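Q: Got a minute? One more chain.
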Amino acid sequence: MRKVAISANGKLRVNVIAGTYVVLFGIDLSEADSKGIIGFAIHRVAHDNHDEGKWLAGQKVFATTKTTPGTPVRTRDFPVQGFLWQDFTAVPGKNYTYRIVALRYEGTALEEDPKLDADVAIKTEAETGSKHSVWFNRGIAGSQAYAREFGNAKPDSVGDKAIRWLSRGLQEALIAFIGRAKDTTYQLRGAYYEFNYAPVLDAFEAAQNACHDVKLIVDMREKSNGPKTSNGKAISTHKLGGIVIERTATRSAIAHNKFLVLLKSGKPIAVFTGSTNLSASGVLGHSNVGHMVADAGVAAKYLDYWNALASDPTNEELKPIVEALSPITASAVAPRTQCIFSPRASVAALSGYRDLARAASGPLFFTSAFGIGAEMEPVFASPRTAPIYVLMDSKGNNASTVARTDELLKVHSNQIAIGGGLPFDRDNGYAMWLSEVQRGVYTRNVGFVHDKFLLIDPLSLHPIVVTGSANFSKASTVTNDENMLVIRDDLRVADIYLGEFIRLWRHYYFRDVLRRLGTTGAKKSYLLPDDTWRNPYFDPTSRKRFEREVFGKGVAV
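A: Always. Here it is, folded:
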């Protein structure tokens, strides 16, 4: 949901975008009208809880402030010094009223400017929709929130509370989807890369006992870094051999799918897909999404794809089937929810994503766990009038990819954040921060960012969301078993994905900047005592200008 808050004098405008757990505030105020403004405070009333309201909290304080490390502080006392802020503590499907007000110093006290004061009532999106349902885990175990809540202890040692906190509904949604196969009128057909997370495997065992018709294709290829051993042990432990079809052909590839089709009386009715492997890493550790589509036509496409995989064909045998099942069509005639499966004979699908991105007039938001592949590089190679926000787990897994990423970092319109924790050093200016786990809890091959989605013009009235299992690479298109969804013109889906992208991007961008600056970056973790914080937001050579223009001016409501 999107709304606009405007002050009585019309000078302060705030674009408010509500996803499920995230509400974004894009603030628009001119350079002249923001003179003397120390920052903004945001107040929230949660109507469904009948509370009296509270000021949203931040983490930054003034350099002279004495505070307990890791303690959140009210924005009324320690204002937002930026033109984009967020409420990461919202709850799906709830009604809120927000008040955004500018603060000035009157003597030594911060006072509210009554002329720059706006409020807005908005309802967050529910995770479950009539067609698309979306669940993001927290995926930021190495964080101030986790350190504050659980003292960086491993989730196993904390118990269910930590598991629920990290999963944030993703595990529960997947288990509930599996549980819909409650009797012999239902069937389940799935395909998975990592298949060793006990709570979900237990759910499959229960479903098989209830419906007697569960069939799952699982990667069992011989690869040094593959999941065959852990998958095999889990299948044996849970006695699931009778429902597993081993994917072994074309050992140079990986069966990287993560999807499950639900059938009723032999007819597909829904599919649960996304980036989440069935492992502790996937569900609880690094960032991931689960996306359920309640559409018989889409589910039927996935079932046809599953049937093609079930005979364990080689890649060359599979490619013509996949091409016929999910042809690349022109945007003008493409369905609102389009399925793209791999492996394919060419990189046409990847080229299609690239061309859609290059044609966009507005900002792009892109996740890339292992660097930016050569096929997607043209999107980032030249400066744009609108920025590209990139979220990565690392710059790449080889020297060439790292070098190319470093070159792309120099392009002014590329706003790139690399996953990681705070460069914690209490003796060098980080005294108000708690130490963080430097790699995500419950990780395997990926430390922090595992999502695979691309948002094209998400702030417009015609957004495109590309999401699924593939890493936007040549291997994911022509070699691996993969599935992607291209969702057009769905504002609800775009707003949910955008909120979660910004949650992760801002979390990691702050840490990435401090790591790059080293000990000299400590001052950037404090608030400024005057209005000079705003200067970069009006500087045409500064990247912060993009943030103000994109979210304060560029949202279609």
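A: The chain has 15 helices and 24 strands.
Q: Perfect, thanks.
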